[in-house]
Amino acid sequence: MPDPTAAPDATDASPDPSANGHSETNPLNTLDATAEKAQEGLGVFERYLSLWVALCIAAGVAIGQLIPAVPNVLGEMEVAQVNLPIAVLIWAMIYPMMVQVDFKSILGVRRHPKGIAVTLVVNWLIKPFTMFGVAWLFLKGIFAPFIEPAVASEYVAGAILLGAAPCTAMVFVWSYLTDGDPAYTLVQVSINDLIMLVAFAPIVAFLLGLSDVIVPWDTLLLSVGLYIVIPLVAGALSRIWIIRAKGEEWFDDVFLERLGPVTMVGLLLTLVLLFSFQGEVILQNPLHIALIAVPLVVQTFFVFAIAYGWAYGWRVPHDVAAPAAMIGASNFFELAVAAAIAMFGVASGAALATVVGVLVEVPVMLALVRIANATRPQFESRTATA
Questions:
Q1: Does the global pTM surpass 0.90?
Q2: 76-95 pLDDT per residue, tens
Q3: Half-sphere exposure (CA, 13 Å, Cβ side) for 29?
Q4: CA distances in angstroms from 151 to 336, 349, 358, listed in the order given
Q5: For 10-25, what is each residue's pLDDT tens digit?
Q6: Is 331 helix (H, G, I), strand (E, B) or coil?
Q7: Rounded CA separation 244/249 (Å)
């Protein structure tokens, strides 16, 4: 008996590649296997990410207050307004994500056109603008008595940076936890990464302009080049070279295994360094972290509801609907942190807002995972009757 969840997307399915006798040469044959390897369960680092961030806040603030020479010296190590220590750490975070993206997977886009339509429209035509609206409503409106206008504008800028980049790495975890289709998840990540190359800068510039925060285009384009283009190209080229030299099995089982801790170390050290610069601000305004978190949490649930509800109404199978909603709900916070530091500085409110995004993401996304899993029967019954 055919799987009822696959029925509504029957037009998406590609023919059996083995039927034409070219199973060894068709790139789609390895798509499912590649995607399966990209998905892993929630490890210790991811599961307790909010705890690690909280510890980094404490460690960073302590260093800034007790050993002020550390942030002072590191803060002066700049070239073209780029802080070199932080740039190196951010590359350490982003490169391991980019090297895992197999752009050949885009050939599988026709397998789930409805899911791809949902994620592209939500991620690029809805999410950045709702993030701007929700952040402005809370930080410049409801919370105005508690936040100075100039500081609130920086917090909104940080929220915009979070909203302009869909998740790249953690979405594989959320997909895994909701029994999402790994091949679809890999395709949507690859496509969104390519769109980010051309859409991130214009969207950020437009929304920052609406919030009366003017950032020179050369600074914004430098951020895109440093933290999107270079890691993406380096990841793609090194992936090709390593697989040709060592084979795909060695790449997946040895190289990626060794590279895994690099992202964790890079993120934690970046947060410690960032909060060593932010210590005085946090000690003077501890309430601000909670105030920043409110619109970020509201936005996450709101965007998830749009994508998930649309997928339900469109009779998209649950194993596609869940990852399609998760990628928009979560953020590429590594890029947001990097762009905020490059454009506004390590001690800026924008940088603080992006780090608060890191702090709240895991518990909020785990709540959405529970919602997705609890509503799976409704999706299955709806698609079965399609």
A1: no
A2: 777 666 778 878 888 887 88
A3: 11
A4: 18, 6, 20
A5: 334 444 443 433 434 4
A6: strand
A7: 11
